[in-house]
Predict the structure.
Amino acid sequence: MSETVASQDEDRADAVAPAEDASRAERSSEDQLVREGDIAGDYLERLLDILDFDGDIDLDVEAGRAVVSVDGGKDLEKLVGARGDVLEALQELTRLAVQQATGSRNRLMLDIAGWRSQRRSELTDLGRQAAQEAKDTGHSQRMRFMTPFERKIVHDAVASVGGVRSESEGEEPRRRVVVHPAG
């Protein structure tokens, strides 16, 4: 009988261990993302000081990535640029700074002056409109050229509408989303 109890205890321990390992890995991953956000925040703070721009830096973790937002002064719009081109460049530089400090690639997302969150809302609406148009007319809708960030949002918006599908076509930087009626 004692062998049976010991065996059951071992089975329970074996069943709990993977759950504990998963929980530990999740905490470790979250800790790594927080560290990436801290490194990015320090980098951006130094950059803002050099440029003599005012801004509040907010660090967060969303959907398995570090998210850094810079809000505040009106001059920050200069760091967004036309259609977010300066923002994209700053995001890449920030990612490289984090990679240099951690030794590993990252998926850090940078937003300045709320531009990405506003753009996300606009693109979601645009994607849903294109999906509805393709569904209503039965004709594919070709959208203008977009960045990978923009295309991802449009694909997600199209996926939320039934009876249509989307794909990207073309070569960077002239890559676009095409929305097709299903079937």
Remarks:
- The first helix runs from residue 2 to 51.
- The chain has four helices and six strands.
